[in-house]
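Table 4 source record.
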Amino acid sequence: MFELIFIVFTVLYALVSVKVDGWITISALGFKSETPMTFIQNPKIYDFVRSILFLGALAISFVTPDMPWITGVIILVVVWLAAGSIGRKKAFAVYRRILREMMAAADTDSDRVEYKEASQKTDQELADMVESSMKYGG
């Protein structure tokens, strides 16, 4: 019974966390319009929900009789790391798609070149942009 609850909490945490990390990333890249209005208005609610899911799964991992607690903790650490990475990669894909669309609709060659260059940035360059945006607020 506890194993099923652990799985449900862990899967829900992973799904919510991927979305939230993606929204945080795409917002930091300047495209808040790609996130839900409720996230724009109050992102802390989403952070709270995923924290509750994570802590719930963590607590359940300690009381699950058929699974050693360390196994649950390791699973949660892997899911936590994977969810952040997947969310960022999805946001980077959305960023590149938007820039390709902007490039196709651009009126001038200089705009097309600018959008093309921006759409070809590496994941590391985009991650640096996100870090800078979050650190310096834009």
